[in-house]
Structure formats: structure tokens, C-alpha cells
Amino acid sequence: QVQVLESGGGLVQAGGSLTLSCSTSREIGRFKAIHWYRQPPGKQRDLVATISNHDETNYADSVKGRFTFSRDLGKNMLYLQMNSLKHDDTGVYYCRIPGLNWGQGTQVTVSS
């Protein structure tokens, strides 16, 4: 089965930055849209950001101006640059590629 692999999470202080990466064996340019979801401890998984195959991006209000979703077609990679991190950004982050299985996610912990 085709896998989705997220990486780049870790422990960071509030105000810090992290860049998450997402990779898959499928050609990412073929997908109309790819998403990042976040699941805080004990809460549901929510949509954080979306990128279209035209590189148009949309963000949840809670991360607008702080997160940037991008893709590198040459490397077949997706990235979520997260700046000015807050404690509420803590959670497991998932790269969602429609039609493929969910990955294991990558844990982001922001200490206040």
C-alpha cells in the first residue's frame, strides 16, 4: 500500500518554529488538494491547512499568518512551516492525501 510519511515534529518552546515534512511514493502534483490536519490531546482531528494543485493555500483561522504550507514538486515533498508556535498548536500532525491511507503523524509539543 502507498504510504504517507510525516516527519519533523518535536518539542519546542512557545514562540519557536518547526517545519514538518510529508512524503509519499505517489506524485503529489496529481492530487487536486492535500491537507494538514492536527489532533490535540483528547480532541478531534481538525483541518489546519490545504494546498491545491495550483499552489493555492487555505488555513484555519487559528494558524493564519503563522503557518505556511508549500510543496516541492521536484522533490515530491510537502512542507508545513510553523512559526510563532503556541501551546495550543500541540498535537499530532497528519498529512492527508485523499485516497491514500492516513500516515502515523508527527508529534508537535509546544511548551509554554
Give an account of the 3D structure.
The protein has about 110 residues and is an all-beta fold. It contains no helices and ten strands. The protein has strands at about 5, 10-15, 20-25, 35-40, 45-50, 55-60, 65-70, 75-80, 90-95, 105-110. The chain starts with a strand and ends with a strand.
Rg from C-alpha positions?
13 Å
Can you give the mean pLDDT? 97
Low-confidence stretches: none
Helix-strand topology string: EEEEEEEEEE
Number of helices: 0
How much helicity do the residues have? Answer: under 10%
Shape: globular
Distance between the termini: 39 Å
DSSP E strands, number: 10
What would you call the structural class? mainly beta
Major beta sheet, strand line-up: 2-10-9-4-5-6
Keywords:
mainly beta
Structure summarized in a few sentences:
0% of the residues lie in helices and 50% in strands. With 112 residues, it is mainly β. The strands form 2 sheets. The protein has a 6-stranded mixed β-sheet with strand order 2-10-9-4-5-6, with no helix packed on it.
Task: Give the topology, please.
Elements: E1 4-7, E2 10-13, E3 18-24, E4 33-39, E5 46-52, E6 57-59, E7 67-72, E8 77-82, E9 91-96, E10 106-111
Parallel strand pairs: 2-10
Antiparallel strand pairs: 1-3, 3-8, 4-5, 4-9, 5-6, 7-8, 9-10
